[in-house]
Amino acid sequence: MKHIFLLQAFGDNLISLTLLRNSHSHEITVHGTSLTKQIAEIIEVNDVNFKKVYDGIPAFYNFKKESFMKSVKDFIFLIKYIKVNVPSNELVFFEKDDFRFKLMKLFLNSYTLKAASKEIGFYQDRAKVIERNLGKRIEFALSKDFKLRGKSVVINPVGRNEVRHLRKDILDFLVKRMKNLDFTISLIDYLGVYSEFESNVDNYYTKTSLKEAANILKNADVYCGPDSLFIHLAYFYQKPFFCIMNYDSSYFLPPGSEFCSICISDGNKKNLPKKFEAWLQDLEKKKVIS
Fold it and tell me: Helix, strand or coil for residue 3?
């Protein structure tokens, strides 16, 4: 038996669970959080063993919101949990190789621990660890190849933290452009901070559950938004998407995202209309006529 620990945010869980799903491996136990379980249910990862370690993200992965003492407490709990629940002769791997992982290796020196190092891209680096240790080949779909099958778009302007949220002038640009192209627009505004756009879209959703929001996206044709869980959900559902980043986080984007994403920091906002139009034109060429 092999063990993977998925203890970070929704997007991290989604990426790793998607890779495990694509590896078709039945010989792994997933140790995670309540967030991990929610994502597994949404993307229907039903063939792995699951054990809950924490309710939410442990404090040592959430320094900006949690105290140092809580981080230490959660870290000690994890070390004890592994020693009790994982035999030392079984492989353990984590999502990324960082200082937390290096600390774990010090405290768990009798275990074989593996983690993804930063080399190519988030998906590719994690896949490499899984492939090497499960002996399974993982194939990637390319975002740029996804087909347009209709004219409904979901826009979610909210990222995990405020620095990722879309500015209102950017959202205004997206809404107006998609409306001009006769797209049916659904706006997911979980925080309710973009309520002035309610009258400008066809469907306005706020305070939706994760499952409800995922279902809205699953039934749409296109997605636009910042770097967030929903970019990775769109990739999972093979929906064409356009990602607008306030800072360069392209390392974390799905494979083949170069053509359908833009970073608007450092005065690059002026290039957004041109890049967006090029993406729209490419979508039109790949439209599937039913």
Answer: strand
* pLDDT value at residue 136: 77
CA–CA distance, 278 with 182 (Å, rounded to integer): 18
Give me 177's structure tokens.
């452009």
Contact by Cβ (8 Å): 157, 225 = yes
DSSP E strand boundaries for 158-274: 184-188, 203-205, 222-225, 241-245, 261-263
Question: Token pair for residue 85?
Answer: 């629940």
Identity of the amino acid at 132: R
- CATH superfamily assigned to domain 143-285: Glycogen Phosphorylase B; (3.40.50.2000)
Predicted local distance difference test score (pLDDT) of residue 284: 87
The full set of domain ranges for the chain reads 2-134, 143-285
pLDDT for res 24: 60
**Residues in the chain where the model's pLDDT stays below 50:** none
Angle (nearest 5°) at CA 283 between 280 and 288: 145
Q: What b/e sequence results for 179-190 when a residue is b if at least 16 CB atoms lie within 10 Å of its CB, and e otherwise?
A: eeeebbbbbbbb
Rounded distance between C-alpha atoms, residue 231 and residue 285, angstroms:
22
What is each CA distance from 251 to 57, 239, 243, 247, 255, in whole angstroms? 22, 20, 13, 11, 9
- Condensed to tens digits (0 to 9), the pLDDT of residues 257-285 reads 988 998 887 666 788 999 999 999 998 88
Model pLDDT, residue 6: 93
